[in-house]
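Exercise: predict the fold of this chain.
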Amino acid sequence: MARAYPPDVLVLDSDALVHARVVKGKRGLQIQQAKSYRLPADTFEAGVVTPQLGNEAALAEALRRLRLETGRWDKASLLLPDSWFRINILELQALPENPNEAQEILRWSLKRTMPIDAASLRLAYEVLSRGAQVKVLVLSAVEKTLVDLERLFGAAGIDLVLIEPVGLNIWNAITFREPATTRDRLFFYVRERDFTTAAFRGAQPLFIRSRNLNGDRSLAQEIKLSASYLRDTLQTAAIENCYLAGNDVDGTLSTSIAAEFQAPVRTLSLSDLIEQTPADAGAYESELAACTGVFTG
């Protein structure tokens, strides 16, 4: 079911801020306007899990220009790179219905895998299933960074109503247009410095992982490792479809994924998702695809 959010969506990365205005067209969604604003290299500093805001003035200046060029609006969704979050799928003996009590249980469960104090994280979660165990999808990011961003955007007159990862919203945009299935599907979202791999059985996520590309292993090697893990641990032997997203991904990568998983690969194109593709959007098609996913998840 489509979600109701303000039409303005922002995608923030360490080197750019993208704004898109998404509206309903005659047959589907349209991107009414889109523009990318470059950020200086020192805008964010490396951090554990989530980068820290290092140059507030640089981001504030980009927001000032954005507001001058895009008219009057005061609410937006914010999408951040998958690598700025930890995404976990937990299986618990029980989870209280009370949100505060549930958060405490989830923080305790994350302590074993987190490199920092779980108390310093902001959590969002979704119960995937309840049975003998409770299966939960948990998103976490450093609270201080999120608070700093909310403060800066607020000072620019923008109330952030949603903060989510880019990759999950690309997946929302893809599956909204795909027929329902109970079979296994894989999703790859590739960026210059990191990539996300996810496996889904029907609508249920089995595995979601974002990894940095640090030069120790090539992307092809990382995909081979992911394939081995998925086959051995999750028994994803027969894949219905693989989906590949990323700006400027080439046919070599698609061929490598198809060979590794013995499954067809569909490379995402923004034109598959919207009625009309904005001019000069080629450099950030994936980010704009994620913007449409805000409304289809």
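Check your answer against the key: The mean pLDDT is 92.
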